[in-house]
Amino acid sequence: MIFIKEVNLAFGHKKVFQEISETIGTRDRIALVGSNGSGKTTFLRMLMGEVEPDEGEVQKPDYATIGYLPQDGISVGGHSLREEAETAFAGAVGLKEKLDQAETELGEMEPDTEEFYDLIDQMGAWEEQLASFEPEKMNARIEKIMMGMGFSIQDMDRQLEEFSGGWQMRIALGKLLLQAPSLLILDEPTNHLDVVSQNWLEHYLKNYQGSILVISHDRAFLESVTERTIELKMGKLNHYKGNYSFYIQESAARMERQRKASVNQKKEIQKEKEFINRFRSNVKKAAMVQSRIKALEKMEIIKPEAEEKKIYFRFPSSPPASHKVVELEGLKKSYDDLKVFDGLDLRIEKGDRIAVVGVNGAGKSTLVRILAGVEPYQSGKREVGVNTVIGYFAQHQAEELNPSHEVLEEVESSLHDNPDANPRAALGALLFSGNDVFKKTSVLSGGERNRVALAKLLMKPCNFLIMDEPTNHLDIRSKEVLQEALNLFDGTAIIVSHDRSFLDEVVTKVLEVSPSKTRMLTCNVSEYMERLDLERG
To answer: What is the pLDDT of residues 461-483, one digit of tens each?
Structure first.
């Protein structure tokens, strides 16, 4: 369907792509992976025709459509949610024209070519989409998808301006699914979804009629949705015929093969050089020596790919803790007329590892702010254990860095009578090396800001970690290192996150928060999702 042929692209002296080639078929399920700065966003923009390659070409047939969901920044207004969703069906006339054009093109194609069958597949998807334009089917489809995104029937008639940024992104995703483009490009689609909506989206995408290209730092989502992986690394495009786990395994094997080939080549070169030096003055072997010199000059040197820097993260040793960490009794919390908790009872004990889950708006962030002691409540009791020392990572902590501070200055501002704290070492471990520590926090990327916020958390030893979305803007490898650090942490932890893969390796309990009740289950998040499926029947 889409062909990328020997593309070269540079921005100034930086080579972004070096002779990359790729084919995206009609039902592909692709994960696009690579470290920050590897060119993933540029690759997407090139697919959409927003960036032209310096050399090579991107071929896309006229009948192929592309839909793109960015990470954030989409906001709409002026009418109701249902009216906005209906705009996804505005292309009925265009679809009919495309089907007519495709009929003509089919008559001119060779019937045994890949393009012929691709076009037939595409026409089938269009015909199915065209059938859904009937008013009854259209409304049913809108409600199915928007409810899958977490909206209620009552929300359908609400004005768009009433929805926050996260819900606006859900609206944008819902519209894309309704439009059903030939290629659906999703950039961090789970960022604004709770685990229930994410589970629904995974099931929906498995049956999607077109192709899907996903960038995501959510490993569980990639494992569930994608079937092959393309990696951008050092300007090259590496292909793997499997999901993310397969890619990790094969990528390591490929680098090991490169390393061994490089070692063997060095031995071969050394052997040839010894022969040349030994017989350089031997007239009888002059032709042989010259032949080997020329062979060495023509030899292409094998250079193993450089290992990317890895984040390193450890929490300070925890102070001794009492058995009771924090207890809430009969707690009531509301915002104006909106009741969040009405008589909440919760006890957290030493050694608990708890994931907080629930639909967006259920009160997850409110709960952890109350536990951290930074959110007021109307009535009830919050009792902190005698020896409890709290470390709190707020959801928007990375956004609340002092913009006038340099990175090192910002971390030093969090020092709390901890003689063992070493801000420079902590920042170095979190990939801020050399003069990076003197950058203003205002110029940092999202991932860099998150790492600064984590460095600040390292400055204060604690025995009760409260973390609200700590993995936002962290890549998969960084998340895995944070996982390891949490598993080595010898205190108690409660974590709000929508990242199932991250949580599964860390937690032993799940606290389900909903407007009507809360319940604690002894399981990880994947087991919790399986339990939900069983309860729904």
So the answer is: 999 999 998 887 777 888 888 89
